[in-house]
Design goal:
The complex is a heterotrimer of chains A (222), B (219) and C (72). Chain A is mostly helical. Chain A has six helices and no strands. The two termini of chain A are 37 Å apart. Chain B has one domain. In chain B, 42% of the residues are buried. Chain B is mainly α and 219 residues long. Classes of the chains: A mainly alpha (222), B mainly alpha (219), C mainly alpha (72). Chain A: One of its GO terms (cellular component) is plasma membrane. Chain A: Required for the export of heme to the periplasm for the biogenesis of c-type cytochromes.
């Protein structure tokens, strides 16, 4: 019970977000109508992706100071899971945008920023494939990861704030907090985000454990 | 020996080497001039937005080609020698500052040739110049570190492009935006935010390179 | 794009000024809600999610078993 309470918490929170996300009260707004409920599912994808990338960069820094191969495995697996969540976020956002903004890919800084950030992490994976030697691969990819991370923050958080955007909360648009007067949306969005972040971490630990098993197997065979 | 002394002597060494062979610098300068000319032949006349974007794209590719070489041309034995005489920080700082010098020269020349061949009125040449300087410094900082990484990963230029383009795109976006402001001659206070972002990106990349390069350097 | 932003701003403005009169002009899925059919959708989604969660748990336990084997 000690070790897996957070997994149960993740399932409960997500169940809550599915039920309350569909049944709960939302403000009636033009253009978005009922699709405002997508906030509960689309936005947490980005939170989860970002959390996973932070985990990855933290473990890359840890690897550089410790040279422990397990830290490298955590870093690469969290990038792998983070990319999955990034794809989910992009696809769900495109679907939503198609119905509310009339275009699956409006020229929006947040969209372009997240697409470029995806390229950055795909480049990280390509770099790993280009390197044969294990320690060298771990070290050099960790260096690239740490180098790319602050630029990703600039890309996704600072740039959209200074340019026009369709997304709420940037470029002079008002945030969602303005419509959500009684806080009923916050009461779903925050638990949903936490639930998805926990689920992402869970997937990360699963992939890490598989990788570790493979790694130990390789050592044993050698 | 203090860091500053090491850096200055290393930069002097780079310049001397470059001066003796003149191969790289001449190649790159010719590259810039011929790209500008090809673009001129292809487009003849362009509207200001395209003019601006084209200028930065030419500069981007020229700088990738110029800086790509910075770690490749060193033989492993020479690198070992540096390793014994200089600290890693001094090496990366000297590379970055040398590449900045090259980039400043390169962008000045590119800008000169480009504006002579492609005539285009500039609203605020002073601001445009500042943006070009900031941009070439930023390119130098980002590409130097990435070329170090790709040099360790077997030196292929595809890897260099894959690794550096996503990192350099944010810089490029800000640059294009501010330089467009400068072209239109908008009030300078509008561009202040973006200039601060540019400065921040430059400072951050140099600082991270300084922190990370020692890990890349020891082998 | 500017048009969309402009209209959005106008709408926000309108909402701000008339928030007290509970905006009835906007069409929401009240039909689905009043007929009770929305619960079917919620139930389906909940079942799907629970299925996935159980699947995840079984994978987790399988890996734990493998890890135990490896230790021996």
């Amino acid at each position: 019970m000690k070790n897996y309470w957070w997994k149960i918490l993740a399932i409960l929170l997500l169940l809550y977000s599915i039920i309350m996300g569909l049944l709960g009260h939302v403000p009636a707004l033009p253009i978005v109508h009922e699709t405002i409920r997508n906030v509960y599912f689309h936005v947490p994808m980005w939170f989860t992706m970002f959390t996973l990338y932070i985990i990855s960069v933290v473990y890359s820094i840890k690897y550089l100071s410790s040279s422990n191969p397990q830290h490298d495995l955590v870093a690469v697996e969290s990038v792998n899971v983070g990319i999955v969540f990034c794809v989910f976020g992009l696809v769900s956002g495109m679907l939503w945008a198609n119905f509310t903004w009339g275009d699956p890919w409006p020229n929006d800084p947040k969209l372009n920023g997240s697409a470029i950030a995806t390229l950055m992490y795909l480049a990280y994976l390509v770099l790993r494939n280009a390197l044969e030697e294990e320690q060298k691969r771990a070290r050099i990819s960790a260096i690239y990861n740490v180098f790319a991370f602050p630029i990703m923050i600039v890309l996704m958080y600072i740039l959209p704030k200074t340019t026009d955007s369709l997304h709420p909360g940037s470029g002079g648009n008002s945030g969602f907090g303005q419509f959500d007067l009684d806080g009923s949306m916050k009461a779903v969005l925050y638990p949903a985000s936490l639930g998805w972040i926990l689920l992402g971490t869970w997937l990360l630990t699963l992939r890490f454990r598989i990788r570790k098993l493979e790694y130990q197997n390789d050592i044993r065979v050698d | 020996m203090s860091l500053l002394k090491e850096v200055t002597s290393l930069v002097r060494k780079e310049i001397l080497l470059e001066w003796r062979f003149k191969y790289a610098i001449n190649g790159i300068l010719l590259y810039v001039v011929s790209t500008v000319f090809v673009c001129y032949q292809a487009f003849k006349s362009v509207d200001p937005t395209t003019w601006n974007a084209l200028f930065w794209i030419i500069l981007l590719f020229a700088s990738v080609n110029a800086i790509n070489k910075s770690f490749v041309q060193e033989s492993p034995s020479r690198q070992l020698y540096y390793y014994t005489v200089a600290s890693a920080r001094a090496v990366i700082l000297s590379k970055i500052s040398y590449n900045m010098l090259i980039m400043l020269l390169l962008s000045a020349l590119a800008y000169l040739v480009y504006s002579i061949i492609f005539q285009n009125p500039l609203g605020d040449p002073g601001l445009y110049f500042v943006v070009v300087v900031l941009g070439s410094i930023g390119f130098a900082a980002v590409f130097t570190m990435v070329s170090g990484i790709s040099a360790k990963a077997g030196n292929n230029s595809t890897l260099m492009a894959i690794l550096s383009f996503p990192i350099v795109i944010p810089l490029l976006l800000v640059l294009i935006k501010v330089s467009k402001n400068a072209m239109d001659g908008l009030d300078r206070s509008i561009s202040l935010d973006e200039i601060l972002v540019l400065l921040a990106i430059n400072v951050i990349t140099v600082a991270i390179s300084l922190v990370l390069f020692p890990y890349l350097w020891r082998d | 794009m500017k048009k969309i932003i402009l209209s959005l701003l106008l709408v926000i403005n309108g909402l701000m000024s008339s928030f007290a009169q509970s905006n009835t002009g906007v069409e929401m899925a009240t039909g689905l809600r009043s007929s009770g059919k929305i619960y079917v959708v919620v139930a389906v989604l909940a079942v799907l999610f629970l299925g996935l969660a159980i699947y995840l748990i079984t994978i987790d336990r399988k890996i734990s078993r493998l890890e135990k084997q490896q230790k021996e």
